[in-house]
Amino acid sequence: MTNLQRRLRQLNQTPFITVGLIIVMVVVYLAMTLAGGSTNVNVLIAFGAKINVLIQQGQWWRLIAPVFLHLGFTHILMNMITLYFVGIQLEAAFGHLRYLGIFLLAGVGGNIASFCFSDSLSAGASTAIFGLFGAFLMLGESFWHNAVIRQLANTFLAFIVMNLAFDLFTPGIDLAGHVGGLVAGFLAAYLMGVPRIGKVNLVKRLIATVVLFGGFIWLYLHGMAQ
């Protein structure tokens, strides 16, 4: 175990945000199942899936609610396994609240991108999970001198490329949401900072903040105008 890994374990023994998010999503999934099925379109709409026309009518909360919804057992199982193993590492690195902020901003960013570029109904934590991948890339860019972080960033970069390539050839996948979440998570990680590991360049943090929220506004307005 490296000194960095020991330090992170000492700082954060209980990833309660990650575990809490998983519990919430499982509870929502069970509620959807009891309401008629998590793949039932009417149930998905009632629980807050991303539907462009409803967002255009003012239901802006559909830009965050889809993160907590899943379509079927396999969908939630794969997402929760990924969220747990990725989340516990990032929650240790960023801290509880910063990590939660990255997760939520990435989820919103992915859904806004989907709202702008895709007309399909969509739901799932994948937008936010791709944002967590983006946060790993931010760590790699900011702390490239650290061998452990560099190795993790390279691993996740290869994983991201494989996933996006898979998305291109798989029908029904919200590619815009995944890419939007990835970019939003990368920028949100700069915005939040990572004092548990080290200082992040202030200019980069300011630029990332402007690009993140400027992008949110532009994509949302563009989607509303369609």
Automatic annotation (TrEMBL):
SUPFAM superfamilies: Rhomboid-like. The chain crosses the membrane at residues 16-35, 63-85, 97-115, 121-140, 152-169, 175-194, 206-225. The keyword Cell inner membrane does not apply. Keywords: Hydrolase, Membrane, Protease, Transmembrane, Transmembrane helix. PANTHER family: PRESENILIN-ASSOCIATED RHOMBOID-LIKE PROTEIN, MITOCHONDRIAL, RHOMBOID PROTEASE. This is Rhomboid family intramembrane serine protease. GO terms for biological process: proteolysis. Residues 57-192 form the Peptidase S54 rhomboid domain. GO terms for molecular function: peptidase activity. The keyword Hydrolase applies. Belongs to the peptidase S54 family. It is a multi-pass membrane protein. It comes from the Bacteria. InterPro entries: Peptidase_S54_rhomboid_dom, Rhomboid-like_sf, Rhomboid_protease_S54. It holds the Pfam family Rhomboid.
